[in-house]
Specification:
Shape: globular
Catalytic activity: adenosine 5'-phosphoramidate + H2O = NH4(+) + AMP
GO molecular function: hydrolase activity; nucleotide binding
Protein name: Adenosine 5'-monophosphoramidase HNT1
Active site: 99
Cofactor: Mg(2+)
Number of helices: 4
Strand content: 15-25%
CATH architecture: 2-Layer Sandwich
Strand order of the largest sheet: 1-2-3-5-4
Largest sheet: 5 strands, antiparallel
Helix content: 25-40%
Oligomer: single chain
């Protein structure tokens, strides 16, 4: 873990080794502007706790994430926006440190573009899946 943290760009930003346009900072959370934005005001909210995927982060380290994302929405004046968090390369994650994007969607060209490949539903299979997942909650 230490070697991954040492090479992690977000951990370097947290430590102050790499500068950022810091919008918010507390003991466990950092928010800053994305330097490759999809739209004006695109920002990242990250837990300071290093973990690659959401399931690697203790619950108490996530408590400020959505409240800070809401503050960013208000501060940027975004009316339509996406809150995005990716886990793994196949799910479009590029930095292996949990991060949440707040991406304003001012028009059709700017912001996040999303495909939504819906699948046909077999109600019997859906009920079996429901029972399986609910049993593990």
């Amino acid at each position: 873990m230490a070697s991954k943290m040492a090479s992690c760009i977000f951990c370097k930003i947290i430590k102050g080794d790499i500068p950022c346009f810091k919008l918010y900072e507390s003991e466990k959370t950092l928010a800053f502007l994305d330097i490759n934005p999809l739209s004006r005001g695109h920002a990242l909210v990250i837990p300071k706790f290093h973990g690659a995927k959401l399931t690697d982060i203790p619950d108490e380290q996530l408590s400020e994430i959505l409240p800070i994302a809401k503050k960013l929405v208000t501060a940027t004046g975004a009316v339509e926006y996406n809150i995005l968090q990716n886990n793994g390369r196949g799910a479009h994650q590029e930095v292996d440190h949990v991060h949440f994007h707040m991406i304003p969607k001012p028009n059709a060209e700017e912001g996040l573009g999303v495909g939504w490949p819906q699948q046909k539903t077999d109600m019997d299979k859906l009920k079996a899946l429901f029972e399986d997942i609910k049993g593990k909650m």
